[in-house]
Amino acid sequence: MRKILLATTALVGFVAAGAAQAATAPLNVTVGGDINFVAGAFHESRISTNSATPAGADFQTLYSLNFGVTGKAANGLEYGGNLVLDNHSNAYEANYAGEVDGIRVTQADIFMSGAYGKIRMGDFRGATELAVAAPSVGGLSYVSFLNASTSFAKDIVYGIDTKNYDTNITYYTPKVGNEMGKVQAAVTYVPKIGQRGSQVLLARGDEYKNLVKAAVTYAGNIQKVAVNASAHVVTGDTQALPATLEDFTSWGIGVQAAYQGFTVGGNYIDLDDYNITSADRKSQATYTAGIKYEFGKYVVGFDWLGAEGYSDAAYAGSYVKDFNAYSFGGAYTWAPGLTTTVNAVLFNQDAQTNTSDNEGYVLLVSQKLAF
Prior knowledge:
Elements lengths: L1 H23 L3 E17 L11 E17 L5 E9 L17 E11 L2 E7 L29 H5 L9 E6 L3 E3 L2 E12 L15 E15 L2 E14 L9 E12 L2 E9 L14 E11 L2 E13 L8 E17 L2 E14 L6 E13 L1
Antiparallel strand pairs: 1-2, 1-17, 2-3, 3-4, 4-5, 5-6, 6-8, 7-8, 8-9, 9-10, 10-11, 11-12, 12-13, 13-14, 14-15, 15-16, 16-17
């Protein structure tokens, strides 16, 4: 009995000591996230007579939970990590309309930062998070209401980079400059596309290896105009034997300018030979432009997404000569974290074969709570 009492006392003391240390530890943990209810109406000309995927309307609920950890050591080293769980669209699934109601870890990383820059390791986008694109009201959530086998939109939105949260290591330089503006650069190394989380890919698949991303960004003020600009490059080698995909080197530039509530900007990305074979030699590119205006609790805007390239969709005429999506949006913030957004998207698709041409619309109303 005495031994049990001593063991229990020691255990309680250990737990109490651990709790005391935890209470005084330099780590700060934050928890946040969002819940987004979306109501959508949609129509595509190619599937208007297909009873399996009719035009119509549906509801969608998106949610995410974000954990952040930061700390600072006695020697000045800053460190921490991020963990994001959500039920958002899975770019790796062929059919993404009507997402499965499941939670997945979409981002998990550790960082260490000091006078010489920042090292970040884990599952996240990497250097191209610094890339600048057109301002948007409503984002890209309309893609979930389009059919993967008929619309080129998925291939554009989930291109080389936005779907690539593969395990990587990234180095960020310190921000260098003065009150007029600062420049930062970053470089990322990804051993294999498709490797994330606990996966270890031993076999040579029809994917890419040795993916390298590099980006540089500028943020500053020219007179009274706030300017953000970026340039980036992404390159990868095929790992299949014999090789079926082409090696590629993609590059892009982007810029935004903001003045008295107005923000304008756009970007251009040359996709080079990403995800194509030696028989596919046509150009692949995406480009955006947009404008938005914020006044009080309101924001309104318009943006355009254009593209040309090869589609992963399973339909004839996989090369899309011209894709355009025009988005009109407006939002109102009722209270901190509570926002209503209205978005109307019109799109048209001119494919290599006329039977793969497509056009349609997506109308969205969303109510979002961010915390």
